[in-house]
Amino acid sequence: MNRLSILAVALVLMSSCCHTGIRYEPTWESLSAYGQAPDWFRDAKLGLWAHWGPQCQPEDGDWYARIMYQEGEKQAVDHRAKYGHPSEFGFKDVIHLWTADNWDPEAIVKRFHRAGARYFVAMANHHDNFDLWDSKYQPWNSVNMGPRKNIIAGWEKAARREGLPFGVSIHASHAWMFYESAQGADKEGPYAGVPYDGRLTRADGAGKWWEGYDPQDLYAQNHPVAAVYGWEWQDTVSVPSPEYRKKFLDRQLDLIDRYHPDLVYFDDTVLPFWPIGDEGLQLTAHIYNQKPDAVVTGKLLQEEHKSAIVYDVERGVADALQEKPWQTCTCLGNWHYDRGLYQCDGYKSAAMVVRALIDIVSKNGNLLLSVPVRADGTIDEKEDAILDDMAAWLEVNGEAIYGTRPWKIYGEGSDIRFTTKGEMLYVHAFSWPADGKLLVQSLKEEAPIGSVHLLGYDSELLFERTPDGLAVTLPPARPNPICPVLRIQFN
After folding, report:
1. What is the crossing angle of helices 242-259 and 151-162, to 10°?
2. pLDDT tier at 19 (50, 70, 90 boundaries)?
3. Are 31 and 301 in contact (CB under 8 A)?
4. What does the alpha-carbon distance between residue 345 and residue 244 come to, in Å, rounded to a whole number?
């Protein structure tokens, strides 16, 4: 038996499942045969994400397509000042302005790979209901209008060429409720009572740039506004129609069949339309039957769901070591590009990202990090510098991240975390001790230690066992300013 821990060995053995020879049906019982994520996902640890679409055009942050219709909110004020009143210039017209002139998917994917990404994810549609490929079932797509480019095809080609697993994120199930604000009108001012553009139809487009297109294919607002806005389907007053759900299903099946993603991220509690509909279950079964080693993620899972899909935690982390592989999704700033955040230096630092990555990996998880993309399809120089610093740390310490598995415990207190690989134990410290000595309390009674190295430093380190733990003397110079990592070899 490996000295590192029975738990670590059990997790490694469990990871050998390759999910082959199974025909999945759209039921939780059938999908639970999936078990847990495959080794490619477990080994990758870090994914980078282009959460990019027409809501980035104003460069004004998250949920723009909803909040621009909410009178008095920052984005609503900004929209009226920049574009005009939403009765005359709605989100459909923002789409028309989004041209993505400087988008170079190969350059960005190469940049992300160089920064340490081991899988790449692209947003396929958001709550704005706009498909970023040549969608068969959604005429409001990036080939027909806006950039007039197949965004997903470009990302997929770049990721495959770079040798990275390719993922897509799907958010559009919630357009039904997301766009309900577009049915409103100002309560005050010169436009008081004038309806926004959320209820326009194809007939209203005569002579307009969108002539021949039905805004209801985008806004989906031929229904009453819910009395209370809610994210959970069972909590909303206005339940999505079967036709709306069927169209969503057809669109995502089209996406999956064309681009065969290795990972599909659903921005839904559990799965799309659960528990009022089984469309998410149908999609998941289809994904697994097409590609048995694919990964599907969902949020706020109950324990019964964690054998069927991978648990995703948005902007948070698990508070304990998880039995099954999971994922945190978060962002350097806001999900959609926010020029104000850029101007006030509001991004996470590389040190913050690295500490989060270490904590997540120590608990058997992966980090999916969004790097906001500007309207024109580029990343800014501040993000570029953060990626450089991440790359520098991973170049030295990547062996303690990629391909690792958890130890018997994830860490000590708030400043030490553990990972393992074979007979090696890695000790991650979130800060450099002021006295140059690192004490690891969990190692006071472990097996005999043969050597201790600091990654990025050539010589062995002095160490001694004390009643308080393993005391390691660090060198005077730091090989990297972020998070030192010890490699411990047992005899």
Report:
1. 40
2. low
3. no
4. 41
Contacts of 170 by beta carbon, 8 Å cutoff, 6+ apart: 124, 125, 252, 255, 264, 265, 266, 267, 272
Kindly list the distances between the CA atom of residue 311 and the CA atoms of 105, 306, 328, 366, in Å, as whole numbers in the listed order: 28, 6, 8, 10
Contact by Cβ (8 Å): 188, 175: no
192: helix, strand or coil: coil
| pTM of the predicted model over 0.90 | yes
Q: How far apart, in whole angstroms, are the C-alpha atoms of residue 61 and residue 85?
A: 19
- Give pairs for 219-223: CB < 8 Å, separation 24+: 219/92, 219/129, 219/175, 219/179, 219/182, 220/129, 220/175, 220/176, 220/179, 220/244, 221/179, 221/180, 221/182, 221/183, 223/176
Q: Is the pLDDT of residue 6 over 50?
A: no
Sequence letter at residue 476: P
User: What does the CA dihedral 131, 134, 137, 142 come to, rounded to 10 degrees?
Assistant: 40
Query: What DSSP element (H or E) covers 77?
Result: helix 74-82
Contacts by residues 297-305 (CB-CB < 8 Å, ≥ 24 positions apart) = 297/263, 297/264, 297/265, 297/266, 297/327, 297/329, 298/266, 298/268, 298/269, 298/270, 298/271, 299/266, 299/267, 299/268, 299/269, 299/270, 300/269, 300/270, 301/270, 302/270, 304/28, 304/32, 305/28, 305/270
Alpha helices in 330-371 (DSSP H): 339-343, 350-362
Distances 313 to 65, 213, 400 between C-alpha atoms, Å:
24, 37, 23
Backbone angles phi, psi at 286, to 5 degrees: -65, -40
Amino acid at 333: G
pLDDT digits (tens, 9 = 90+) for 355-414: 999 999 999 999 999 999 999 999 999 999 999 999 999 999 999 999 999 999 999 999
**Total residue length of the chain:** 491
Structure tokens at 247: 């169209």
Phi, psi (deg, nearest 5) at residue 397: -115, 5
Question: What one-character DSSP code corresponds to residue 423?
Answer: T
Percent residues over pLDDT 90 in the chain: 91
Listing from the earlier edge strand, what are the strands of the sheet with 424-429? 411-412, 416-421, 424-429, 485-490, 449-454
Residues 299 and 284: beta-carbon distance below 8 Å: no
